[in-house]
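Data availability (excerpt). All sequences and predicted token strings are deposited with the supplementary files. A representative entry, Redox-sensing transcriptional repressor Rex, is shown inline so that the format can be inspected without opening the archive.
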Amino acid sequence: MREHLIAAPLPTIRRIPRYLNVLEDFAAEQISFVSATDIANKLGLKPIQVRKDMAFTGIVGKPKVGYKTDELIETIKSFLGWDSATDAFLIGAGALGTALLGYRGFAERGLQIVAAFDIDPKKIGTRIHGKEVFPISKMAELAKRMQVHIGVLTVPAESASQCAHALMDAGITGIWNFSPAELDVPESMTVQREDLSAGLAVLSVRMSEKKQGIV
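Structure token line:
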């Protein structure tokens, strides 16, 4: 088993899935070997950055040859934990939750949303994209029985804290937070927040800057 002596920086972790997308394109083109330069050119990065990021996965390229494409793909999937299926619960079967339940790309990256939870009586007992919606009161029982440790949170801000604590009480140790709220949870919990408004802000500001000739 590969040991990581140094924790990978967050920017590195965010870049590595982009490398995987490029590598899968190379594999589809039946390109057997790729270099850091090949990957960097596709993404507008510097080769030294790609090599530094790859070092955190534990793989080492061969001088003048580069990396074997299929081996690098498998190494990255292993590093990201995407080489085996991980089950998750989704909390909040509203518009965003429904969209995520129907997104097939998660399965390709090793995440299987196996059930949804909500407080709306009209949704409980229904199925959304093949996933049954349960009352939140059933979460702890099902998490223990199904050995689920990841929760995808897609509830309004005013409900986020209560739902996060329900996840903790159910034994969930990792929360993928799509709600607009900052969660106050113990350090033992791993939380990744996806702030959609932040992404929109970057897009809007960059467009404005280009319009003004700033960039």
